[in-house]
Specification:
The chain is mainly alpha-helical and 273 residues long. The chain has a single domain, classed as Growth Hormone, Chain: A. Helix 2 packs antiparallel against helix 7, helix 2 crosses helix 10 and helix 10 runs antiparallel to helix 11. The two termini are 18 Å apart.
Length: 273
């Protein structure tokens, strides 16, 4: 809903910035909210954290009611129209790339603690999580202007996947370098979070009349990919050990890249509005 509203409030050539800014808010909430919630819970109990969440929710609701202008909305699609999205090969292929990207990035992130322990960074886990989160902030806010400047979200997605795959593959070596080992975590976070905006931009262009539904489908694929990736990470650790996790994740990212390159090779024009 937030993504659909944000893109409806700006001119077509500024959709990338709107997407990046909205997703940047999500990444900021994730990076800042988790440690802030823990800090409050340690001092005021977990009830204090939930009270803060309720207060913030009330403030956000008031701000929406008072400040968000009326946005013309398209007729809600029927269930048949929603299911028909799955019959569009371009939609399915785009969402499949998002799914595989989440399997690689979010799936590996779920198992990052044992990975850090193996690299001797267990005591520095908090700093490593912050490096990943700061990368997410940078990627989320920077990708929007890049989309608008390049005008090619599919090509940008291919570049993101290339960098992500190389970074994940190099993690076992780079994490053993001490302080420089924070850099791949920052890049990984940046690429993982930046991947959502170009995909949503593409889907909004493919289905401008039902953009919110297409974006919701993409978000569902992203979270499903994170869940599947976490489960597969457990299987990989049980069968091949922790050392195989980055290699497996890089392989999934490469599969997403191959699919994205196939989309680029036979791409369907998107709507301009």
């Amino acid at each position: 809903m937030a993504v659909a509203a944000a893109t409806a409030l700006v001119e077509p050539h500024r959709k990338g910035r709107a997407l990046g800014f909205t997703l940047g808010g999500m990444s900021t909430g994730t990076v800042v909210g988790v440690p802030a919630g823990l800090w409050i819970a340690e001092r005021l109990s977990w009830q204090g954290t939930l009270t803060l969440v309720a207060v913030l929710g009330a403030l956000a609701t008031a701000a929406i009611l008072l400040r968000l202008p009326d946005i013309p909305a398209a007729e809600p699609p029927s269930w048949r129209a929603r299911v028909a999205l799955l019959a569009d090969p371009w939609i399915v292929a785009t969402v499949a790339v998002s799914f595989l990207t989440a399997v690689a990035s979010l799936g590996l992130y779920t198992s990052v603690a044992p990975l850090l322990d193996r690299a001797g960074l267990g005591e520095a886990a908090a700093r490593c999580f912050w490096a990943w989160g700061v990368g997410g902030l940078i990627g989320s806010f920077a990708v929007g202007p890049l989309i608008d400047w390049m005008g090619a979200p599919r090509g940008l997605m291919a570049l993101i996947l290339t960098i992500l795959a190389l970074t994940l593959a190099a993690l076992p070596v780079l994490l053993r370098l001490g302080s420089p080992g924070y850099l791949p975590l920052l890049i990984w976070g940046a690429m993982g979070w930046a991947s959502q905006a170009p995909q949503q931009h593409t889907l909004l262009g493919l289905k401008p009349d039902h953009g919110s539904v297409a974006v919701a489908l993409n978000s569902s694929a992203n979270y499903l990919g994170g869940a599947v990736g976490a489960a597969l990470g457990g299987v990989v650790m049980a069968m091949a050990g922790t050392a195989a996790l980055p290699v497996a994740a890089a392989g999934v990212a490469m599969a997403a890249l191959v699919l994205q390159l196939a989309i680029l090779a036979r791409r369907r024009p998107m709507a301009t509005a």
